């Protein structure tokens, strides 16, 4: 559910569980690997350290959504600690 999620957070229903949506504004010449860098190298610092109730769910795959050959969005699977 979205209970407790602030109104300012975009809520998208993706089959299969909870995902953290990482996105960037597209400007000519954007590096499409930026969102992947955040998802794989900085997610602990930028999100998980300040939201200790969540952890990365390594049993599911990261999902990417492409627009005009640049990766506009990455969805990182999460789980709530202590829940299967």
Walk me through what this model shows.
The chain is an alpha+beta fold and 84 residues long. Helix content is 15%, strand content 30%. It has one helix at residues 34-46, and strands at 18-23, 54-56, 63-67, 70-80. Strands 1, 2, 3 and 4 form a 4-stranded antiparallel β-sheet that branches. A hairpin with a 2-residue loop joins β3 (63-67) and β4.
Give the radius of gyration: 13 Å
Please identify the structural class as seen in this structure. Answer: alpha+beta
Unreliable runs = none
Overall 3D shape: globular
Number of helices: 1
> For the residues shown, what is the average pLDDT?
80
Oligomer: single chain
Largest sheet: 4 strands, antiparallel
Order of helices and strands: EHEEE
Number of strands: 4
Q: What is the beta-strand fraction?
A: 25-35%
Question: What is the distance, rounded to the nearest whole angstrom, between the alpha carbons of the first and last residues?
Answer: 15 Å
Helix content: 10-25%
């Amino acid at each position: 559910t979205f209970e407790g999620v602030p109104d300012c957070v975009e809520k998208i229903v993706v089959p299969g569980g909870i995902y953290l949506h990482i996105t960037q504004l597209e400007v000519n010449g954007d590096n499409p690997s930026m969102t992947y860098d955040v998802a794989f190298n900085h997610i602990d610092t930028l999100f998980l350290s300040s939201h200790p109730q969540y952890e990365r769910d390594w049993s599911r795959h990261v999902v990417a959504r492409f627009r005009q050959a640049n990766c506009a969005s990455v969805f990182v699977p999460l789980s709530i600690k202590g829940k299967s």
